[in-house]
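Session log. Operator J.P. requested a structure for one protein chain; no other inputs attached. Running the standard single-chain path with token output.
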Amino acid sequence: MVVKVKSNTTMSDVTGRVNYYYKRANEIHKLIADDENEAERQYTILYKRQKQDNHELWLVRNEAIINNNRPLELYRGFLSHLGFIENTKKNIKWNLNEFRQGKNWFDAELKKMGD
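Structure written below.
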């Protein structure tokens, strides 16, 4: 489901989405050893889902809400940190690892907020 851009979006909402992507990427990574074709298919679904969220968060109509909602700003930052390369079997591990990289950035930003 595509992210709903609402002014009352909480950090818990956003953390849940980030954790979903991270956990799902790890599950797909484990699947590679058993069924590389299915792993590639599942990665493509995950990739498209994050792309839809990213698109929604950059729409001009949502700009004012996002700029006044730190959780949504951080979620947009998480998605912006995902640096995918061509979707091929050869690149699937790299692309799945991007979700870990994005989560590391997100967690560091959360820590800064707590300091």
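Operator note: The first helix runs from residue 11 to 31.
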